[in-house]
Specification:
A hairpin with a 4-residue loop joins strand 20 and strand 21. The chain has 2 domains: 264 residues, 3-Layer(bba) Sandwich (FAD/NAD(P)-binding domain); 150 residues, no CATH class. The strands form 6 sheets. Strands 2, 3, 8, 9, 10, 11 and 22 form a 7-stranded mixed β-sheet that branches. The protein has a 6-stranded antiparallel β-barrel with strand order 13-16-15-14-17-18. The protein contains 13 helices and 22 strands. By secondary structure, it is of the alpha+beta class. About 1% of the residues have low confidence. Helix 10 packs across helix 12. 32% of the residues lie in helices and 26% in strands. The structure holds flavin-adenine dinucleotide (FAD). The site of flavin-adenine dinucleotide (FAD) has 38 residues, from helix 1, helix 2 and helix 13. The site of flavin-adenine dinucleotide has 38 residues, from helix 1, helix 2 and helix 13.
């Protein structure tokens, strides 16, 4: 996986140390910061733009996103429907998504030589499946147009002045900027939250979103890798549907990840210890399941349930569910007692599992929480409490479900901030 790095000395029109003053300073060399920078320089080529990244690596998350393939966005082109994929920020993002949506993102990258493709589930990737195509494009655009990029140079603090902001950088130097964009991401350890708070913002406590569930239960024990195409999961008063994947530690898959996103705060408050109810056959009603079992007893009495999975469930999972309902391997349909049948119905329609913790979803994870949205003007991404300060990306209390929605939020908010800063 190639890394997007610049030497600590910086790149573009930059010199070894950051210039003493600039029109626009951007803290955070991630998706939102870069997209704001290239937008601002496109709109206002004469503006001096400084992009600060505290780590040695630029666009680090984009590089690892989508397992190194970078799921750039999602092929949902109706802004209102698109907004429904954000557990936090749906209402606020609606306007911005009308101005910069996945179709615009796709056109932007393709116009700059990065062809994209859409997979069957709507996720959009570079045709060559290389995140480096995206990072390379952003870096080229920024460098060619003269953005001063300084890696290994973090923003340590910012103070509002009459003309703009007085910045102190991690290398001890100082800089003045007329406008400042905070795009420092959702890392709770990042100084971005602290800087935003010092400038007057409220921070909704950051908690993880998009995680898998830790469950130790004989019904799924030893079944790692088994998946069910369509299940319904319920917990903490929420429910989601979709594919379920059994892992070594519990459960994952789109249904679980969506539940973790919509329930991020509630599940955090439960310390990730809660009951999960699974409907393994959501397209079949409880009554229909009951009838089907009765029919099996009647029509296939001599057959062994363990040998003939019903409802298109994977055979190994089916056998585990039978066992849990007290139906042993050699049992025959004819010998099924009604209480066993009822236990199987309950197992199939409302199996209860105890979640004891969460595991990292290595494919994609984001932060729920961040800068309070009512304090930001979403027409410009400018702060309502600190004029001249702009905010974009995961630093905000915005996060989406998995599938390209999080990067789209970064492109959209970065775009709008870049336009507004260039115009100001
Ligand atoms: C493993 C993984 C895979 C993912 N895959 C996808 C995917 O395929 N599709 C998708 O849509 N989303 C994906 N996401 C989520 C997506 O990557 C993020 O939501 C998005 O990158 C957020 O962009 P950002 O610019 O706001 O923040 P970031 O990308 O986190 O960038 C913020 C940058 O600011 C820097 N910084 C922090 N503090 C300072 C400071 N004080 N001064 C200067 N710099 C600072 C940080 O070092 C960082 O580089 C993935 C996330 C992870 C963790």
């Amino acid at each position: 996986m190639s890394r997007a790095q610049t030497p600590p000395g910086g790149s573009g029109r930059g010199s070894a140390s950051a210039p003493p003053e600039c029109d626009i300073a951007i803290a955070g060399g991630g998706a939102a910061g870069f997209f704001a920078a290239v937008t601002a320089v496109e709109r206002s080529p004469d503006a001096s733009i400084l992009l600060l990244e505290k780590s040695p690596e630029l666009l680090a998350k984009v590089t690892i996103s989508g397992g190194g393939r970078c799921n750039v966005t999602h092929a949902e082109f109706d802004p209102d429907r698109l907004a429904e994929h954000y557990p936090r920020g749906a209402r606020e993002l609606r306007g911005p998504l009308h101005r910069w949506q996945p179709g615009d993102t796709i056109d932007w990258f393709e116009a700059r030589g990065v062809p994209l493709k859409t997979e069957a589930d709507g996720r959009v990737f570079p045709t060559d499946d290389r995140a480096a195509s995206i990072t390379g494009c952003l870096l080229d655009q920024a460098c060619q147009q003269g953005v001063h990029i300084h890696a290994q140079t973090g923003l340590r603090s910012a103070t509002r002045t009459e003309e703009g902001f007085a910045l102190t950088l991690s290398n001890g130097t100082h800089c003045r900027a007329r406008r400042l964009l905070l795009a420092t991401g959702g890392n709770a350890a990042s100084s971005g939250y602290k800087i935003a708070a010092n400038l007057g913002h409220t921070i909704e406590p950051p908690v993880p979103s998009l995680f898998t569930f830790h469950i130790s239960d004989p019904r799924i024990d030893g079944l790692a890798g088994v998946s069910v195409e369509h299940a319904r999961v319920r917990a903490a008063g929420l429910q989601q549907q979709g594919a379920l994947l059994i892992t070594h530690w519990g459960l994952s898959g789109p249904a679980i990840l969506r539940l973790s996103a919509w329930g991020a705060r509630r599940l955090h408050d439960l310390a990730y210890a809660f009951s999960l109810e699974i409907d393994w056959v959501p397209d079949t009603s409880e009554e229909e399941v009951r009838d089907r079992l009765a029919q099996q007893r009647q029509d296939h009495g001599a057959a062994q349930p363990a040998r003939h999975p019903l409802f298109r469930l994977p055979a190994r999972l089916w056998r585990k569910l039978l066992l849990h309902a007290g139906i042993y391997a050699k049992a025959r349909w004819s010998g099924l007692r009604s209480e066993q049948a009822e236990r199987l119905v309950a197992e199939l329609k409302r199996g209860r599992f105890e979640v004891t913790g969460r595991s990292l979803n290595k494919e994609e994870f984001v932060t729920c929480g961040g800068v309070r949205l009512s304090e930001v003007d979403f027409r410009t991404m400018e702060s309502r409490v600190c004029p001249g300060l702009f905010l974009a990306g995961e630093l905000l209390d915005i996060d989406g479900v998995t599938g390209g929605f999080n990067l789209q939020a970064a492109w959209t908010t970065g775009r709008i901030a870049g336009e507004a800063m260039a115009a100001g």
